[in-house]
Amino acid sequence: MVKPLIIAIDGYSACGKSTLAKQIAKKLGYVFIDSGAMYRAATLYFLEHQVNIKNDADVQNALHEINITFQNIDGLNTTFLNGKNVEEEIRSLIVSEFVSEVSSISAVRRKMVALQRDMVGKYGIVMDGRDIGTVVFPNADIKFFVNADPMVRAQRRYHEILSKNQKADLHEIISNLAHRDKIDSWFKNNRH
Fold it and tell me: Which of 182, 144, 170 is nearest to 25 (CA)?
């Protein structure tokens, strides 16, 4: 019997990590875990409950209330936050604006990494996101790093938002991606 593989796909936001991960998972019959959706769901919870991200106690209390799961609905990977389908809400621009700040909180990262590791079972998995191959699964069987030109990334996100019948501004998206890259680069270089 062949041991199920852990496949980690790292890269910058809006590079196509999820698209690639979904295709690989589908082809292999593996489970797809969208780690970015997990951070987005935590960010949505923080925004909805007005959690002060500068207050450690508030952050810890919020994290104890967060449960994130995935379900396949009509062939689509769907994110649930505390039992509620939040797939549409977590892709909003307001969540995009704050997800890097929330993701940079050590306690949030520890919680998400623990949840991600708990999702590994007897099935092969494909997980995408930043730091998947270095922090979450440093011993993953297969690792990819995906990157793309910033304008291509912005256009991908722009079309993704429009496809969900939401308002999108390309210049705002370009600015948001540059801001997220800056925060994520700083965090990566200053991680303890």
Answer: 144
Burial letters for 152-167: b for 16+ Cβ neighbours within 10 Å, e otherwise?
ebbbbbbebbeeeeee
Rounded CA gap, 162 and 178, in Å? 20
pLDDT in tens, 16-59: 888 899 889 888 888 888 888 999 999 999 999 999 999 999 99
- Decide the pairing of beta strands 6-11 and 84-85: unpaired
Best CATH choice for the domain 6-189 from the list 1.10.1060.10, 3.10.290.10, 3.40.190.10, 3.40.50.300: 3.40.50.300
Residue 123 DSSP label: S
Q: Residue 39 is which amino acid? A: Y
Q: What is the pLDDT of residues 158-181, one digit of tens each?
A: 888 888 777 888 888 888 888 877
The sign of the torsion formed by the CA atoms of 153, 47, 110, 56 equals positive
